[in-house]
């Protein structure tokens, strides 16, 4: 989220690094077309829904709590890639149903199975989503929403893009934090060296320190849809890891 020349200096700034892995935390014919029948050997949407969430293998699927009926899947392009796609899956009586795919960013250096503070990688894993907040007023969040001027994001990102507004809306990812508290809470159960302040937040057009970012409109969609009663989680990582 900061340019390469000043990355080291700004890692020490608690103001900039409140979140995103801080220690303080994007007129034709009216005739209705005929839908083609599925080709032989393909899986219909209904069959996919019954089988589970596409892209998640048995290990990752087993990590999703039984009571969970909302899963945000952030699928990275590769272990060292800063770009990913976010899809919200919701379980219905017929099985899992996928929403649209949203372009997103993750950390500059990709992903890590043992995330550490300042490694510029997003933590691989399946994590609960318990709390939200932001600089702007609550847009209708179902998750507990904590508004604060502490959600401040000054400066520029790795590609020179302004960071202003990145923390207008955030959802805390329950990695190395205490659920049930503000996303700004500094409690780190694994210790400060393991990082923290890993959020879903508003995309600023470039890689993050450790968070996953989507457009402002999509953040509002998530805030208005994710329901604590449905025990939402995020499954995040690159595609091959998620498929395990």
Q: Can you tell me about this structure?
A:
The protein is an alpha/beta fold and 244 residues long. The protein contains five helices and twelve strands. The radius of gyration is 18 Å and the shape is globular. The two termini are 30 Å apart.
Architecture blueprint of SSEs:
Blueprint: H1 7-10, H2 45-51, H3 58-62, E1 70-76, E2 83-92, E3 95-98, E4 102-105, E5 111-112, E6 122-123, E7 125-134, E8 145-147, E9 170-173, E10 199-202, E11 212-214, H4 216-225, E12 233-238, H5 239-242
Parallel strand pairs: 1-12, 5-6, 7-8, 10-11
Antiparallel strand pairs: 1-2, 2-3, 2-4, 7-9, 7-12, 9-10
Give a short overview.
By secondary structure, the chain is α/β, with parallel strands linked by helices.
Comma- or semicolon-separated keywords:
244 residues; alpha/beta; disordered N terminus
Q: Over all CA atoms, what is the radius of gyration?
A: 18 Å
In terms of DSSP E residues, the strand content is 15-25%
Oligomer type: single chain
pLDDT average, as an integer?
Answer: 86
Report the count of strand segments.
Answer: 12
Q: From N to C, what is the helix and strand string?
A: HHHEEEEEEEEEEEHEH
Shape: globular
Unreliable sequence segments:
1-17, 23-49
First and last CA, distance? 30 Å
Please describe the biggest sheet, giving its number of strands, its sense, and whether it closes into a barrel. Answer: 10 strands, mixed
Helicity level: 10-25%
| Structural class by sheet pairing and helices | alpha/beta
In DSSP terms (H or I, runs of 4 or more residues), the helix count works out at 5
């Amino acid at each position: 989220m900061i340019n390469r020349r000043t990355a080291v200096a700004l890692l020490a700034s608690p103001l900039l690094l409140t979140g995103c892995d801080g220690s303080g935390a994007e007129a034709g014919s009216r005739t209705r077309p005929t839908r083609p029948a599925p080709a032989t050997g393909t899986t219909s949407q209904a069959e996919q829904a019954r089988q589970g969430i596409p892209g998640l293998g048995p290990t990752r699927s087993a990590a999703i709590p039984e009571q969970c009926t909302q899963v945000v899947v952030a699928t990275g392009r590769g272990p060292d890639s800063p770009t990913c796609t976010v899809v919200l899956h919701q379980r219905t009586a017929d099985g899992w149903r996928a929403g649209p795919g949203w372009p997103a960013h993750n950390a500059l250096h990709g992903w890590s199975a043992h995330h550490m503070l300042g490694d510029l990688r997003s933590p691989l894993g399946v994590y609960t989503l318990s709390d939200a907040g932001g600089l702007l007023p609550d847009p209708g969040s179902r998750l507990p929403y904590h508004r604060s001027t502490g959600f401040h994001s000054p400066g520029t990102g790795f590609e020179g893009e302004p960071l202003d507004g990145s923390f207008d809306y955030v959802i805390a990812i329950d990695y190395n934090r205490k659920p049930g508290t503000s996303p700004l809470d500094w409690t780190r159960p694994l210790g400060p060296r393991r990082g923290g302040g890993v959020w879903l937040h508003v995309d600023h057009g470039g890689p993050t320190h450790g968070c996953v970012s989507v457009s402002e409109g999509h953040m509002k969609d998530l805030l208005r849809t994710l329901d604590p009663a449905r025990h939402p989680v995020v499954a995040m990582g690159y595609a091959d890891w998620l498929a395990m």
